[in-house]
Design brief:
332 residues, mainly alpha, 12 helices
Length: 332
């Protein structure tokens, strides 16, 4: 994995994952604003997000069909199974996440879910035979997790006891769903609309559950606007960027980069929900940023070293060819 981000495509993929994480960081605050404004439950918000995202992605897929003519990829049984896992993982991730937000607050829900996800993804990648993460990835993960531990303490007014435990358990379920999405989505070949399939499948899975539970709708214009934003930006756009980035960025690396999401969520919760950043929380946020930045710089340095090595090898090969040609001419 030492050259995981060596190519230009990998660097673009890295930046796409960063943009996706920043967009996702607005999800918790958006969901909380909708819940407070329209009194919608976690299942209602998750369903709206999945359904709106699926409609937007289907519309975009239909409008760009001509541009993709001749670039279709055959859907194998293995790919279909991966897409089903992506849809189920997305549905579970969204439902558990918004339930954790409603129970324990934006900061704790986001920090536990996204802090645990890299460990689950790294473990899953090892179990699936993708090899051990390199030392730089492990160090970045450790630094980021220390930062997250510091950040957890900033959740203002969080209830004690069973409420926090329940919220943390829901966040763990969200982390499991996110890990499934990352590991399954990384194996889907280019040309397959993985984001559309994931959101469409997730929406279909949540629809009967929401209807049986009594789906609640809203006519509040502010809540509707936030729901539309939730389905457009941190859903359709962010996941499209994320899955495209996963084609060239390993899952464990992407999971560390997406730790920017809880950092973004914490800053927004501080600004809009009255949570305060203590000095320790600020230090934690800086550690998360340092982990992501350090990982990227390490990859760029590896690319530079490999480029120099390739240039030296080519030069040596050229010298050997030149000497051989001279020898041939002298002998002739």
């Amino acid at each position: 994995m030492s050259s995981a981000l060596a190519s230009p495509a990998s660097r673009r993929g890295f930046l796409l994952v960063v943009l996706a994480a920043l967009c996702w960081g607005t999800s918790g605050v958006s969901g909380r604003l909708v819940a407070d404004r329209a009194d919608l439950g976690p299942l209602d918000i998750a369903w709206h997000r999945m359904a709106i995202g699926a409609v937007v992605l289907l519309t975009a897929h239909t409008l760009t069909r001509r541009r993709r003519a001749g670039r279709t990829t055959a859907l194998t049984r293995g790919t279909a199974a991966r897409l089903a896992l992506v849809g189920a993982g997305l549905a579970a991730y969204q439902l558990a996440y918004f339930a954790a937000v409603a129970t324990a607050g934006v900061s704790i829900a986001t920090l536990v879910a996204l802090g645990l996800a890299p460990l689950l993804i790294a473990l899953g990648a090892t179990v699936l035979g993708h090899g051990r993460p390199e030392r730089a990835t492990v160090v970045a993960l450790a630094v980021a997790l220390v930062g997250l531990v510091l950040l957890v303490g900033i959740s203002a007014g969080a209830d004690a006891g069973t409420t926090v435990v329940l919220g943390a358990l829901l966040a763990v379920g969200s982390a499991l769903g996110y890990a499934v999405v990352t590991l399954a989505g990384a194996g889907v070949p280019a040309g397959i609309p993985v984001t559309l399939a994931g959101f469409g499948g997730g929406a279909l899975l949540l629809t009967p559950i929401a209807l049986l539970s009594g789906l609640h709708l809203t006519t509040d214009p502010v809540a509707l606007g936030v729901l539309l934003y939730l389905g457009l930006v941190p859903s359709a756009l962010a996941y499209a960027l994320f899955f495209r980035g996963l084609r060239s960025v390993p899952g464990p690396v992407a999971s560390i980069v997406t730790l920017l999401e809880p950092l973004t969520a914490t800053v927004l919760a501080t600004a809009f929900l009255g949570e305060r950043l203590s000095p320790g929380a600020l230090a934690g946020g800086l550690l998360v940023l340092a982990a992501v930045t350090g990982l990227y710089v390490r990859r760029l340095r590896s690319r530079g070293e490999e480029s120099i090595a390739r240039t030296a090898a080519c030069t040596a090969s050229g010298d050997r060819s030149s000497r051989a040609a001279t020898t041939v001419r002298e002998e002739s």
